Predict the structure.
Amino acid sequence: MYRNELAVKDEVNYEESRKKDFEQYDMLINDKFVVEAEKKLLLSKLEGFSIASGIISIFLSILTLISEFDYYRNESITLVLLIFWSTSVMITIFLLY
């Protein structure tokens, strides 16, 4: 009878240790997926930032060329350039966060 009780206790301990091992394994896998998802999110934010900054730089260069040609005739272009530049800076800051 004593041997049967020890065998049952050993089996219960084995099952409990297996459950703990599976729980730890699940936690490790979940942590790995969370880290991968955070990496993908960060990369997508950086891609969005690089695309937005490229578009903004193109528009700024076009507006700079326009303002250089029309500076003496129309000073409002410089104001438009300033407004557009400040808006683009706000958009890029928004995309970063």
Remarks:
- Residues 24 and 30 are 10 Å apart (CA to CA).
- The mean pLDDT is 72.
- The chain is about 90% helix and 0% strand.
- The helical segments are 2-69, 76-96.
